[in-house]
Amino acid sequence: MTVFLQLFFTFFIIGAFTIGGGYAMLSLIQAEVVTQHHWLSESAFTDIVAVSQMTPGPVGINTATYVGYEVIYAQSGSHFLGILGSLSTTLALVLPSFLIMLLVVHFYTRMKGNPIYEGVMAGLRPTVVGLIGAAAVLLTLRFGPGLDVSLVKENFPDWSSWVFFGLAFVASYWGKFSPILLIVLSAAAGLILY
Fold first, then answer.
1. Is the whole-model pTM more than 0.85?
2. What gap in Å lies between CA 38 and CA 33, rounded to an integer?
3. Over the Cα atoms of the chain, what is R_g?
4. How far apart are CA 156 and CA 65, in angstroms?
5. Torsions phi, psi of 175, nearest 5?
6. Integer Cα distance of 176 and 194 in angstroms
7. First to last CA, the chain
8. To the nearest 5 percent, what fractions of the chain are helix, strand and coil?
9. N or C: which end of the chain has fewer CB within 10 A?
10. What are phi and psi of 25, to 5 degrees?
């Protein structure tokens, strides 16, 4: 029961203090799940992020669902309890946003046009971009004590991984390719190459 509460509390806090969606919460999820609680390894977390991006739904919710299942199943050996762990973490992640949206909807008509409200919203936009950038850095670099920084080799094992990353970035940013097409092509290339 303690692990259920710990998972619920952890993902409730992540859901409460993340603004900007699933990609913005990846750095917080990584810090809690991998670094703080050691529920998953770095390479397992990277795999979860990859799978979460390909499955329907927000990446944060997909990640929370997987972590909840994996942690409870590893401790209990019960698939049923693992599913309850998934439900617990998913609910915990969504609940703060739901409650905040209820408040925002209630006060939105009163606050619209208010310079303080508009200023807060303008200030949050660059913060979201920073959180998404932090998630990308955390997936590629490992930070040790002091100034010890190394590349996470499990995430980019060879030069072809960097080439795929570069091609996908160029194709999505400048080529305006469909993300679904890029995922399918990347998966096919990965199957052929690896």
1. no
2. 6
3. 19
4. 25
5. -85, -15
6. 27
7. 41
8. 80, 5, 20
9. N
10. -90, -5
